[in-house]
DNA sequence: CAGGCTTCCTGCGCGC
DNA sequence: TGCGCGCAGGAAGCCT
């Protein structure tokens, strides 16, 4: 399940490989993987064929590729999506839904295969609109795909507004994990990293946000950043592995709570619990992560 | 406005 | 051995 670190590894690899490449052929093997494409603008294939890729950008878990036409190719990996970089004829990949053949002036012919077992992800061609906060996006322009414009910046983004995040938490009557997973407040965090960061911050997943001090909010953001950076450091030096296996190897070794229900907490030895929350599961230590009472003003 | 619930989807692991 | 069920999860849209 790709979250920010996994998506960033994919972005940086593709940025190096296909910036400046021209799309020569597009094949859609499964229409379900072309999601939320504005068909009134024209067929997906026609909007891409013969077009040059200008860069690879990311906001939260969304990827996009600004194009020479002024549009952008948007991709979301969903639960099981991968963007596999291949040479022509290479790799007997399974679950390939969309295939882009590109020609790069230096790297020659390459293939970008969108593989997605569970079909939660998808691709679309989208128009670029001005970034709502007016600050530059990854490519130095203020342009962002219209379908991505509502997504907040991630906590590693230099223009992430921590003050606005704290004000939003103070306004709403909500649990901290719900807020961390709300991509319009802060982006890039999924179920695994949320559980890990909350454990590190000793915070209960259902801690009401309005009674968190700005110091406590800063603390949980710092733990999110630390978790992201640790995964990014592990992530992706291997050019091959990052595309063959889109899943992060990081948490197969470094998980503190996710998937470890019944095992002892690494801090206090209490048994890790798993609870249903928001139609998914939350893993936490009932000893270290307790709901703190509402502060009396 | 916020939050709860549903839909999309497939492979795997469990119990019988 | 095989079947059927539940589970896993990100995002969006509907409903309350």
Structure write-up:
This protein is α+β, with helices and mostly antiparallel strands and 297 residues long. It folds into two domains: 4-148, N-terminal domain of MutM-like DNA repair proteins (Alpha-Beta Barrel); 162-284, Orthogonal Bundle (Helicase, Ruva Protein, domain 3). It has helices at residues 4-18, 44-48, 162-171, 176-181, 191-200, 214-235, 241-244, 250-254; strands at residues 22-28, 57-59, 62-66, 71-76, 81-86, 96-104, 108-116, 122-130, 143-145, 273-277, 280-284. It has a five-stranded antiparallel sheet with strand order 2-3-4-8-9. It has a four-stranded antiparallel sheet with strand order 1-6-7-5, with helices on one face. β3 and β4 form a beta hairpin. The protein is globular, with a radius of gyration of 20 Å. 42% of the residues are buried. Residues 236-248 have low confidence and may be disordered. It binds a DNA duplex (16 and 16 nucleotides) through loops.
Query: Approximately what portion of the residues adopt beta-strand conformation?
Result: 15-25%
CATH class of the largest domain: Alpha Beta
Give the class from helix and strand content and strand pairing: alpha+beta
Mind telling me the CATH superfamily name of the largest domain? MutM-like, N-terminal
Distance between the termini: 41 Å
Give the CA-based shape.
Answer: globular
Element order, helices and strands?
Answer: HEHEEEEEEEEHHHHHHEE
Model regions low in confidence, pLDDT < 50 over at least 5 residues:
236-248
- Overall strand count: 11
Output the radius of gyration. 20 Å
Proportion in helices:
25-40%
Q: How many separate helices?
A: 8
């Amino acid at each position: 399940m790709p979250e920010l670190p996994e998506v960033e590894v994919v972005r940086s690899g593709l940025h190096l490989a296909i910036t400046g490449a021209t799309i020569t052929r597009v094949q859609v093997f499964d229409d379900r993987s072309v999601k939320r494409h504005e068909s009134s603008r024209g067929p997906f294939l026609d909007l891409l064929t013969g077009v040059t890729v200008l860069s690879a950008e990311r906001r939260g878990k969304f990827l996009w590729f600004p194009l020479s036409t002024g549009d952008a190719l948007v991709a979301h990996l969903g639960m099981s999506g991968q963007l596999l970089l291949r040479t022509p004829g290479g790799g007997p990949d399974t679950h390939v839904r969309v295939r882009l053949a590109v020609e790069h002036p230096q790297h020659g012919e390459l293939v970008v295969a969108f593989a997605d077992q569970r079909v939660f992800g998808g691709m679309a061609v989208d128009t670029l609109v001005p970034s709502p906060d007016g600050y530059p996006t990854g490519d130095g322009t203020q342009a962002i795909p219209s379908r991505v414009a509502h997504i907040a910046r991630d906590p590693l983004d230099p223009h992430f507004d921590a003050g606005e995040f704290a004000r939003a938490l103070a306004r709403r009557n909500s649990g901290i994990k719900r807020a961390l997973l709300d991509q319009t407040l802060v982006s890039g965090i999924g179920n695994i990293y949320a559980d890990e960061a909350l454990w590190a911050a000793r915070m209960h997943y259902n801690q009401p946000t309005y009674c968190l001090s700005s110091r406590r909010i800063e603390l949980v953001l710092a733990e999110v950043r630390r978790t992201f950076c640790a995964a990014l450091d592990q992530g992706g030096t291997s050019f091959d592995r990052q595309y063959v296996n889109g899943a992060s190897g990081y948490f197969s070794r470094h998980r503190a709570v996710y998937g470890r229900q019944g095992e002892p907490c690494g801090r206090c030895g209490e048994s890790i619990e798993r609870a249903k929350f928001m139609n998914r599961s939350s893993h936490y230590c009932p000893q270290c992560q307790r709901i703190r009472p509402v502060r009396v003003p």
